[in-house]
């Protein structure tokens, strides 16, 4: 017997608005029945588990121990700029001059996530 990951749960202060942010980040839709004010919302990813947003009264106090790592289909640099335009903030920058590394961002509620190098970025470094 095994277990299958059903969703990735993200506790937040405003489930609908945070799901809306992540819907724009991933280019995937929110659940069609979700509406402003809902305490539970979802972003329906193309493959794998859904992103499940659960409204809770507690605020983010410490660094989250689990976070999402994003591999963009454009360059990492273009994606970092797009994410900032959507409302993400810079947490720390682990990008190196040789093109390796990653950029740590936070969503509008402070949940950290990483922007990794894209497949084309990685291919360009190995050639």
Features:
Signal recognition particle alu RNA binding heterodimer, srp9/1; alpha/beta; globular; 127 residues; 24% helix; four-stranded mixed sheet; three-stranded mixed sheet; 2,3-Dihydroxybiphenyl 1,2-Dioxygenase, domain 1; 7 strands; 2 domains
Write structural notes for this entry.
Residues 8-115 form the Glyoxalase-like domain. This is VOC family protein. It comes from Streptomyces arboris. With 127 residues, the protein is α/β, with parallel strands linked by helices. It folds into 2 domains: 1-58, Signal recognition particle alu RNA binding heterodimer, srp9/1 (2-Layer Sandwich); 68-127, 2,3-Dihydroxybiphenyl 1,2-Dioxygenase, domain 1 (Roll). Helices cover 24% and strands 25% of the residues. The chain has 3 helices and 7 strands; from the N terminus they run βαβββαβββα. It has a 4-stranded mixed β-sheet with strand order 4-7-6-5, with helices on one face. A 3-stranded mixed β-sheet has the order 1-3-2, with helices on one face. The longest helix is centred in the first third of the chain and has 12 residues, at 15-26. The chain starts with 6 loop residues before the first strand and ends with a helix. 24% of the residues are buried. The mean pLDDT is 90.
């Amino acid at each position: 017997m095994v277990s299958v990951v059903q969703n990735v749960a993200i506790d937040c202060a405003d489930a609908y608005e945070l799901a809306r942010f992540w819907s724009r980040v991933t280019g995937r839709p929110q659940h069609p029945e979700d509406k402003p004010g809902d305490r539970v919302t979802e972003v329906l990813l193309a493959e794998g588990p859904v992103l499940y947003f659960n409204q809770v009264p507690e605020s983010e106090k410490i660094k989250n121990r689990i976070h999402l790592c994003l591999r963009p289909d454009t360059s990492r640099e273009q994606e970092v700029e797009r994410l900032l335009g959507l409302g993400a903030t810079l947490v720390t920058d682990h990008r190196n001059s040789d093109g390796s590394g990653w950029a740590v961002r936070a969503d509008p509620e402070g949940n950290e996530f990483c922007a990794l190098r894209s497949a084309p970025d990685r291919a360009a470094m190995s050639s």
